[in-house]
Amino acid sequence: IATVAPFGGGAHHPAVAALITIHDESEQQRALEMRTDFVANASHELRTPLASVRGFIETLQGPARHDEAAHDRFLKIMGEQAERMTRLIDDLLLLSRVEEKANLNPTGQVRLNELLNEVVRSLTPAADERRITMTVEPETSSLLAKGERDELFQVFHNLIENAVKYGREGGSVKVHMTENDRDSVRKRVTITVTDDGLGIAPEHLPRLTERFYRVSTEHSRRIGGTGLGLAIVKHILSRHQGELSVESVVGRGTIFKVVLPKYK
Ligand code: ADP
């Protein structure tokens, strides 16, 4: 705070100029710290699968050189680790692209019914694998949200994919859309994604949208993920003047609720 950079000597409003400068410096400092943390976390997340791949390469070159069975097994694991790194890099790039656009205000019109059904179709193979039934309701709806289609696709893809991943095997995932208050001036739409799966303990709820944050349970470790999905959701929604909230009961299930401006 002591170092104030004056704007070109004879400024007409030196006090105001100084105030702005101080504000900028602390903002920049905070952004810098977040950036440093982020790079450290991202490097760590990439290093783990990389270390595993390197370990297997050494084993294949050394002790397991002539072990045919080990070859197949290790190559399969190496493939999975490479896939994990690809997913991480894809998510990191996506997050940075979304952040770049943070100050642009999306104005497009998105037909929710179509969008949600498209997301659900894209996740059908994953849901089938866990024998999960997905539904979008109401079946016929002409609700329009204001926003950018690709980004809103990503939001619901991440939420519904999570519901399928952490949902109950043989259970259901329900997607529901509704208009908030027909009479109010600031019209909004609400979309909920409900699963009947694992649930999330209350202490984790406030931290879910932090980058790389994952609830560490036996199940979620086995499932795998980057911990970036909900951070991406949060960033996209913030640019859309949207809201995200979550309600959950451990062992019963989870409801993620998205509120977006309605396209008039
Ligand atoms: P990930 O790639 O780990 O799924 P996300 O950012 O999408 O990352 O989610 C963060 C964490 O929140 C997940 O690791 C999981 O522990 C928890 N989570 C998200 N959605 C659900 C859900 N529908 N049910 C239970 N837990 C969930």
Task: Indicate the topology.
Blueprint: H1 14-61, H2 68-100, E1 109-111, H3 112-122, H4 124-129, E2 133-137, E3 144-146, H5 149-166, E4 172-179, E5 188-195, H6 218-223, H7 229-239, E6 243-249, E7 253-261
Helix pairs in contact: 1-2, 2-7, 3-5, 5-7
The structure holds adenosine-5'-diphosphate.
Adenosine-5'-diphosphate (ADP) binds near residues 215, 226, 229 and 230.
Catalytic activity: ATP + protein L-histidine = ADP + protein N-phospho-L-histidine
Protein name: histidine kinase
Subcellular location: Cell membrane
Structure, described:
- The protein is of the alpha+beta class.
- It contains 7 helices and 7 strands; from the N terminus they run ααβααββαββααββ.
- The chain has a 5-stranded mixed beta sheet.
- A hairpin with an 8-residue loop joins strand 4 and strand 5.
- The longest helix is centred in the first third of the chain and has 48 residues.
- The chain is globular and about 75 Å long.
- The N terminus is likely disordered.
- The site of adenosine-5'-diphosphate (ADP) has 21 residues, from helix 5 and helix 7.
Given as residue ranges, the uncertain stretches (5+ residues, pLDDT < 50) are: 1-16
Beta-strand content bin: 15-25%
**Shape, per Cα inertia axes:** globular
Mean pLDDT: 87
Helix fraction by DSSP (H/I, runs of at least 4): 40-55%
Structural class: alpha+beta
Give the terminus-to-terminus CA distance: 46 Å
Ligand list: adenosine-5'-diphosphate
For the CA atoms, what is the radius of gyration? Answer: 23 Å
Mind describing the biggest β-sheet? 5 strands, mixed
Number of helices: 7
Order of helices and strands: HHEHHEEHEEHHEE
Total strands: the figure is 7
Trace the largest sheet across and list its strands.
2-4-5-7-6
